TrEMBL record:
Organism for this UniProt entry: Leucobacter massiliensis
EC number(s) from the headed UniProt entry: 2.7.1.36
Protein name: mevalonate kinase
Keywords: ATP-binding, Cytoplasm, Kinase, Lipid biosynthesis, Lipid metabolism, Magnesium, Nucleotide-binding, Transferase
Alphabetized PANTHER family for the sequence: MEVALONATE KINASE (PTHR43290:SF2)
Lineage, opening ranks: Bacteria, Bacillati, Actinomycetota, Actinomycetes, Micrococcales
Family: Belongs to the GHMP kinase family. Mevalonate kinase subfamily.
Keyword check for ATP-binding: yes
GO annotation (BP), single: isopentenyl diphosphate biosynthetic process, mevalonate pathway
Length: 349
């Protein structure tokens, strides 16, 4: 975004104040950085993973959901101008042109084209490089995080400024290709600094009364959000009374967790997590392996544990009392079959 010209001084014009001069200098520095990115022909963007703490699946039907950031699982994208050449992608999954890319990369291609259009670039003659620490297909928002990082890289490339709504729509376009009917929570959570409450498209930050240490365990089997959402829809059509009851209870658990988070009440949060996992099993999105990991976390002393994300695979999230206990829980989860584990602490706010 180009800054306004600094005010002129002369007859009838007051000299700029120190504050105004400082603001002008700051704006000039921002513009210089943007121009440098444009001149060097590339832009950089990043985003992080997320975990759904409460509200999976119920959020699709208008219920609130709570998500926490996973800052240590990050994706970085770099977009470089390549005039006269077709859009090219370089990643661990694939290296080649967009026209030869596999189906699973369609959301990424959608994000690139939507982002470039949003920043006023008329073509997609660029190279996209993706470096991601977020495991794919684990319910951690990998597709949304890549799209968010792409949007930021496109803005950095051109020096454009993306508003919050435009940024969100870019990510949502990619998410529709990836998942069909996304709630929008992933698009918000992968760009949020802390825990958020998401309800019917609206998002607000959630206070945290005490540090919360979570252990994330990869079951080793990918899940499919689109498949899980479709399955819940089919079961709801077949048995609306039972399914709506379970979805309503998931909604109540999410709503009630806000106060527990604000108080930093680990035992209460853990109890809610266990209830939520039982309900997610009831609506058909848990698996024997996920259930075994939840049981292992409980046996190791976790306050609570549950699947996180769409289910049918993916990850389990367990709440520890401390970072030291988290190490013990992580060992127990790996012994129970977890492919890998991560520990993350959500800071008090």
């Amino acid at each position: 975004m180009n800054p306004s010209l600094p005010p002129r001084t002369g007859p009838g014009t007051a000299a700029p104040s120190a504050a105004a001069a400082s603001a002008a200098a700051s704006a000039a520095a921002t513009a210089t950085a943007a121009e440098a990115a444009h001149e060097r022909g590339h832009g950089i963007g990043s985003a992080h993973a997320k975990a759904i703490l409460f509200g999976e699946h119920a959020v699709v039907y208008g219920a609130p959901a709570i998500a926490v950031p996973l800052h240590q699982l990050e994706v970085e994208t770099r977009i470089r101008s390549t005039p006269g050449h077709e859009l090219r992608i370089e990643s661990e999954l694939f290296a080649g042109t967009a026209s030869s890319a596999p189906e699973r990369l369609r959301p990424v291609i959608t994000a690139v084209r939507a982002a470039l259009a949003a920043v006023g670039r008329p073509d997609d003659q660029v190279q996209l490089r993706v470096r991601s620490a977020i495991p794919h297909g684990r319910g951690l928002g990998s597709s949304a995080a890549v799209a968010a990082a792409v949007a930021r890289a496109a803005a950095d490339l051109t020096g454009a400024e993306l508003g919050a709504d435009a940024f969100h729509e870019i990510v949502q376009q990619a998410e529709r290709v990836a998942h069909g009917n996304p709630s929008g929570i992933d698009a918000r959570a992968v760009a949020a600094a802390g825990p958020i409450r998401f309800h019917e498209g609206r998002v607000c930050a959630t206070g945290v009364g005490a540090p919360l240490t979570f252990v994330l365990a990869d079951s080793g089997r990918p899940g499919s959000t689109a498949e899980a959402v479709a399955g819940v829809r089919e079961r709801r059509a077949a048995d609306p009374v039972a399914m709506d009851r379970a979805l309503a209870q998931l909604s109540e658990l999410a709503e009630g967790s806000v106060l527990d988070l604000e108080l930093g009440d680990r035992p209460a949060l853990g109890a809610r997590m266990l209830q939520a996992h039982e309900l997610l099993g009831r609506i058909g999105v848990s698996t024997v392996r996920l259930d075994a990991l939840v049981d292992a976390a409980r046996a190791a002393g976790a306050h609570g544990a549950k699947l996180t994300g769409g289910g049918l695979g993916g990850c389990v999230l367990a709440l520890a009392d401390s970072e030291q206990q988290a190490e013990h829980i992580a060992l127990a989860l790996r012994a129970a079959g977890a492919r890998r584990t991560w520990t993350t602490t959500v800071a008090a706010s």
